[in-house]
Amino acid sequence: MKTLLRIMCLAALTWGFAACAAAQNDAPEPEQAPAHLTIYYHRFDGDYGGAGLWTWDGRDQRMPPEEEREIQAQPCDFGVRFDIDLSKYGNDDSPEERIGFIPRLKHSWDFKDGSDRYWTPELGSEVWLIGNDPKIYTSEPDTHPRMTGAFLDGPSKIFLLLSHPLEGMPPGKDAAKATTDDEELEIARLNVTPDRMGVEIKMAAPMDPFADYTVAFEGYGESPLTPRDILDDRDLFYSDSEMGAVYTAENTTFRLFSPMSTEAWVVLYDEADGPQGREEIAMEHAGHGVWEAVVEGDLEGRYYALKTNTRQHGMGRETIDPYAKNTVGRLDRSRITNLRKTDPEGFRPVKRPDYGGALTDAIIYEMHVRDFTVDPSSGVANPGKYLGFIEHGTHLPDDDTIATGIDHLKALGVTHVQLMPPMDCHNDETKFGYNWGYMTWNFFTPEGIYASTIDGDARIREFKQLVKALHDENIGVIIDVVYNHTSPGNAFENLAPGYYHRMKPDGSFWNGSGTGNEFRSEAPMARKFILDSCKYWIDEYGVDGFRFDLMGLVDLETMKQVQKDVAELYPEALVYGEPWAASGSGLSHLTDKGAISGTNLAAFNDNYRNAIKGGTKGADPGYVQNASQRDGVLKGLSGAITDWAEKPTNAIEYATCHDDMTLWDKLEISSQNASREELVKMQDLTFAILAVSQGGVFMHGGAEMLRNKKGAENSYNSNDDVNAIHWEWKKDNAASVEFHTNVIALRKAHPIFRMRDAGEIRKRFVIRDDIRPAPSTIVCTLNGAGIEGEAWKDAAILINPTSQALDFTVPLSGKDGVYILGQEASTEPMDTVDGKLVVPGRGLAVVAVE
Predict the structure, then answer these.
(1) Which residues have a catalytic role annotated?
(2) pLDDT, tens digit, for every residue of 190-212?
(3) φ, ψ (nearest 5 deg) of residue 149
(4) Is pTM beyond 0.85 here?
(5) Whole-angstrom distance, CA of residue 199 vs CA of residue 176
């Protein structure tokens, strides 16, 4: 889960050009750049409690100190004002070049007003804002009562949202008037909402949802009527048609869902930039809110954008197709591409990994494409790129015995690589700016900064090469996907305003993601969009599963349908995610651990994570540091079936991931008096505990070589020195790398650790508290008799989280083989024991009998 501060800072550095572009109408250019800026802010509800203006340098040249980034509100006749010293922004040559800002209340991101807006000098030294209105006004706007929204919510149902509460007696139906083509429609009745901020109108006859209507209300002016809740009627506004640009050598069919549009166009170009070959083709309404155009001829290599005229916003700018298959740079055009020409030799049929077939068989290794090879120590020819990720024969430049890159993954033995979001991110691909990729710009296209060039079809070809190379090593590819929110500059609000995002009654965005908007996954065509995207990545790119960022915000029915549709294409695909949100959500029921329990979905077991090593923030310790939270560890060992999971295939067992501190950094801050030797024991013990647990196993890439981020809790935009894998770690921590490798091999060799059925676990997994040598220790047994492929009849897991070696009773038959002991592990018995075994401090042992 991305922390709110991290995400909002990311937003501040990268988002928001759309809002200012729409607002900078005919503002006069000042004769001299101002030294100060005053922003006036008005809210119709009069609530300015804790009002502040969060600001940042929109050109990323200089930032004011953290304590000065929120400008405090000062009362004024308009509402409140914010006074900004422009010298604190930009650089010395251009101190006032571009400033980003977001109003917020209660000093909290949970109460921010809209998405990012930007001031530039041509707007002048004074601008005005109105709550929940994205426009930047260059002269004082009218703040008299108005309708802030007029919506068609059903065939005969209109809802009016008012800026100010109604006063006096409730008005009669004559206070409202609805017209179309100068024809007045009959109103049956009118009701005022309890808060007197809304008006519900019942029409005498059904209305045409595709017609243009105007609604007037006495004292509040008039407004065009915008379809809203009626859009969720699948009979009226849903299509199974393939959306986007459907290419063949003979013609290309363009389809767009924009139910509130009165006109739509495809705009063709010969180049990715500039006016060459510009051609507008009008789209025809194909029913159900879909627009369509068929252009004859082979369009491969040409570029296109979409443009609409919507009831809500009028004529829009050219914008990218949400279904674009090949985005280029940071433009609103995408390239029409013959996808079959991008397949590497031997790519189809896709060769899937043979890993066992269930989540419990998976050992998932999380990695960022750039982090994996960008450091010079990787020895690759294409550092930080898709192609660098899969170069064979690479090693430390000064030591050819230390394999790096894909050869390291193969030797380590992981079954899957989980790539941090490889979809096209909201960034400027023409210049590098580090990010993790959690602000998706386009959901059908690989990110370009990892390709050899951002032009042409390189990103498509090279991502497929990455998938194929990992498949050739019997390693699956899972991609981290971010369908819970979109970047504010995305195409959705331009093409279908108010449809694809969860909106509050006052017209503002819900912010459960902490990034300003939530994707409304439960809407029929929004759900279709997610399903289409997931199926596309499975079919076109051959990926093997998905990790859903903030899965809690994607409704359960959509998640279940994703798993079902993906399984029809690849039955062993893995679908799992973060079972939480970042803040309060507009979704009535989060897709949390309780919701997914018993389904074919899986979720990260944060209960286990916190029990093993403490919380994600601060220095609070867990089991491996101070022997606390034993009960939480026991629940995790059994696959969470005694905690929240109905079956072990629901639980992803992990201790750390890209978020927050690395495990090593967490251990250092929570065990400041421990020696390095003790810290290494804690880290090795952490992975050993995970590896003998039921459920799926997830590891943060680089943890096997004691990866650190220099203590950084949040490195989403830190430099390569902080984020990259420094392959010298592998040489310096060779013993830990070997231990992780051997423990992985042992887990893969024994299905006793990978049971898929909760009933089997309850029958075969036994906790032996009667013989534990100390209160914090753990003794449990596993019965393997009759498990297909299992050579062990019985096994025992002994865990000693204390700092001292302890003498354990081994509850097996005698002359048992020792497979893990402390920091040593092997798939063959390293020794035999007969009834007793000394387990080192901060150590785990596995003993078994065949």
Answers:
(1) 549, 578
(2) 999 999 999 999 999 999 988 88
(3) -170, 140
(4) yes
(5) 9
**CB-based burial label for 744 (10 Å; 0-12, 13-18, 19+):** buried
Q: Amino acid identity of 135?
A: K
Which range is least confidently modeled, 441-455, 485-499, 615-629?
Answer: 485-499
Residue 658 DSSP SS3: coil
Angle value at C-alpha 811, between 805 and 815, nearest 5 degrees: 90
CB 781 within 8 Å of CB 766: yes
C-alpha 259/C-alpha 823 separation (Å) is 62
Taking residues 650-670, report their average pLDDT: 97
Strand bridging mode 99-104 / 183-185: unpaired
**How many CB atoms sit inside 10 A of residue 490's CB?**
25
| C-beta neighbour count of 205 within 10 angstroms | 9
Q: Quote the tokens at residue 754.
A: 């990978």
* Residue 758, phi then psi, degrees to nearest 5: -65, -35
User: How far is Cα 359 from Cα 544, in angstroms, rounded to an integer?
Assistant: 12
Q: Helices 405-412 and 734-749: crossing angle, nearest 10°?
A: 50
Reading the block at residue 629, the tokens are: 């939270």
Cα angle 458, 460, 466; round to 5: 95
Other C-beta atoms lying within 10 Å of the C-beta of residue 62: 14
List all residues 6 or more positions away from 121 whose beta carbon is below 8 Å from its beta carbon. Answer: 29, 30, 33, 34, 96, 97
Amino acid identity, position 320 = I
Supply φ then ψ for residue 394, to 5 degrees.
-85, 155
Which pairs from 274-281 meet CB under 8 Å and 24+ separation? 277/302, 280/307, 281/254
Cα–Cα dist 801/625, whole Å = 7
Please enumerate, as own/partner, the contacts of 532-537 that have beta carbons within 8 Å and a separation of 24 or more.
532/243, 532/323, 533/443, 533/444, 533/481, 533/483, 534/481, 534/562, 534/565, 534/566, 535/565, 535/566, 535/569, 536/444, 537/479, 537/481
Give the pLDDT mean for 539-551. 98
User: Could you read off the pLDDT of 711-735 as tens digits, one per residue?
Assistant: 998 898 899 999 999 999 999 999 9
Closest-CA residue to 165 (of 191, 194, 200): 194
Cβ neighbors of 487 (< 8 A, separation 6 or more) are 15, 426, 439, 440, 441
Enter the tokens of residue 247: 């290419």
Rounded to an integer, what distance in angstroms lies between the CA atom of residue 520 and that of residue 510?
Answer: 10
Range scoring the smallest mean pLDDT among 368-382, 433-447, 471-485, 644-658: 433-447
Q: Output phi, psi for 831, to 5 deg.
A: -170, 175
Helix, strand, or coil (residue 467): helix
Q: Give yes or no for a contact between 510 and 550, defined as CB atoms under 8 angstroms apart.
A: no
Cβ-contact 699, 690 below 8 angstroms: yes
State the pLDDT at residue 33.
62
**Which 8-state DSSP code applies to residue 86?**
G
Contacting residues for 425 by C-beta, under 8 A, at least 6 apart: 435, 437, 438, 439, 440, 441, 447, 449
pLDDT above 50 (res 2)? no
Per-residue pLDDT tens for 599-641?
A: 999 999 999 999 999 999 999 999 999 999 999 999 999 999 9
Question: Which residues fall within 8 angstroms of residue 496, CB to CB, at 6 or more apart?
Answer: 257, 258, 259, 260, 310, 525
CB atoms within 10 A of CB 771: 12
Task: Specify the amino acid at residue 821.
Answer: L
Residues 212 and 180: beta-carbon distance below 8 Å: yes
Mean per-residue pLDDT over the chain, rounded: 91
- pLDDT tens string 310-340: 876 778 889 999 999 999 876 789 999 999 9
pLDDT for res 172: 92
Return all residues near 282 (Cβ < 8 A) that are at least 6 apart.
263, 264, 265, 293
